[in-house]
Amino acid sequence: MPENNLTSLFRKEILAMSAYHVADATGLIKLDAMENPYHWTDDAVANWLESLKNCELNRYPDPDAKRLTQTIKAQSRIPSGFEVLLGNGSDEIIQILLMALPPDACVLAPLPAFVMYRQIAQSLGLKFAGTPLLAGSFELDLPAMLEAVATHRPSVIFLAYPNNPTGNLFDTGSIKQILETSNGLVVLDEAYAPFANASFMDELTHYGNLLVMRTVSKLGLAGLRLGYLAGSPGIIEQLNKIRLPYNINCLTQITARFALEHHDLFEEQTQKICTERTRVYYQLSTMTGVTPYPSAANFILFKTPANKAGDIFSTIKQQGVLIKNMSPQGGLLTDCLRVTIGKPEENQAFLTALKNSLGTIL
Question: What pTM was estimated for this model as a whole?
Answer without folding.
Answer: 0.94
